[in-house]
Amino acid sequence: MPLAVFRARVHVIEVYATTRPRRIHQAIIARMEGPGHTGRASEYGDAHIPLLVIGAGPYGLSTAANAKTHGIEPLVLGEPMGFWRGNMPERMLLRSGTDWHLDADGIDTFEAFLVERGVDPTRVPPVPVGTFLDYTDWFCEQKQIQPRPSFVSRLDVADGQFIASLHDGQRLIADAVVAAPGIARFAVIPEWVPASLPNYRWTHTSELVRFDQLYDARILIVGGRQSAFEWAALLAEAGAASIYVVHRHDPPSFEASDWGFVNELIDDTIRIPGWFRRLPTAEREGISQRFWAEGRLKLEPWLTPRLPEHVIQRRPRTAVATCRELTSGEIDITLSSGEQLVVDHVLLATGYKPNLANIEYLQPLLDRIETVDGFPVLDERFQTSVPGLFMPGFVATHDFGPFFGFVRGCPAAATLIVAALLDADQRRVR
Fold first, then answer.
1. Is 192-256+300-348 the same fold as 11-182+354-429?
2. C-alpha angle with apex 199: 195 to 205, nearest 5 degrees?
């Protein structure tokens, strides 16, 4: 069914972020304060909580905050914004504007944070990663969310409840779980790389955040998207001798991306749950292609002056044909064009692809979680085939669209997940 027709026929659902029956809210609070919940021991002899959020990145924090706002007390496990702090260079700049934020209620936004500090939001872009991290710290303070820097080693289900075993030996019992894994475990590594080189001769961009170790080095970057060129700029600024950027597609254009079209699509996700997956294949692919064009075929214009041509050389429409380490310690590269390069290190800007099998704590549940090509199959509110287990963020992009791999989708995902949790509580108290 075409999207325009689908929109015309849909009945707009009630969004719990704005209205909810008082009796439901009171029943949830009474249930949370009753035996077997926060601060009490469960029948398993372990801490029992209403909502466990595994992962303290943007989607985990956004969902936890919205749950707390609606009377569901969450426990968030993980290092706050751990991937952003540990796997993004300090001098990295974000492609998003100041209108992307975490608050499903639209109150504690990134722009509100900037205004409170006397900063004009229109003068901020490009946004330094550190500035956005300051916002997330402020957001947690505003919402009274205190992530616990503990990690889940195993997640099981028994008698309709989740049992989370932590690395420190503690167990937690939860009624519902939001699993928001970071993308580091999903890095794409082309097979030829580990087959040709020892581990210390290559790195994925997710693992390279300090560049002084590659001072005066010759570097091959595989990939041609934003990360490839931003890492090239950072390496050049750190004193790399020469950098070759090799990618198979056409040269990207250096112009500002226009993400405005995403706003309506995300709004539709709240108004019309599940609309994306019900589109005809051609329309789904059309949306994905437009997103691909903005995200991959355009690079931010502020990168251009940071790409000195005497250091950074581009090789579009090209791939690596052969790669071998020489006895001299150098790396010999032959490109599909026939050109030969000699470099000291290979950097992979090859992106990410979800694969639930890479999430260690989900191993006990993998045979119960329905998947497609490594992605979880989700219902209209991000729930997996295991009732009570929700997975927003990058792993949800197959069913919800590519825009849910970015911060912009956080408020919508939080709204839908909390609506599902409230519905579940309503059914329990009837």
1. yes
2. 105
HSE-up (13 A, CA, CB side) for residue 2: 3
Start-to-end C-alpha separation, the chain: 36
The total of other beta-carbon atoms located within 10 Å of residue 338's CB is 8
CATH number of 11-182+354-429: 3.50.50.60
CB 226 within 8 A of CB 89: no
Q: Which two tokens stand for residue 320?
A: 């690596």
Residue ranges of domains in the chain: 11-182+354-429, 192-256+300-348
8 Å CB contact between 412 and 269: yes
Write down the number of H helices and E strands in the chain: 12, 20
What's residue 106's pLDDT?
A: 96
The rounded distance, in Å, linking the Cα atoms of 81 and 64 is: 14
Joined together, the tokens standing for residue 299 give: 């690079």
Predicted confidence (pLDDT) per residue in 304-357, tens digit: 899 999 999 999 999 999 999 999 999 999 999 999 999 999 999 999 999 999
Tell me the two tokens of residue 276.
């994306």
Q: How confident is the model at residue 430 (pLDDT cuts 50, 70, 90)?
A: low
Q: At 316, list the tokens.
A: 């579009």
CA-to-CA distance for 219 and 235, rounded, in angstroms? 9
Residue 413, H or E segment: helix 410-429
Q: Tens of pLDDT along 16-69?
A: 333 333 333 343 334 334 443 444 444 444 788 999 999 999 999 999 999 999
Domain covering 192-256+300-348: architecture = 3-Layer(bba) Sandwich (3.50)
Strands of 167-293 (E only): list them: 171-179, 202-204, 218-222, 242-246, 253-254
Tokens of residue 39, six digits: 């601060």
Count the Cβ atoms, other than its own, within 10 Å of residue 233: 22
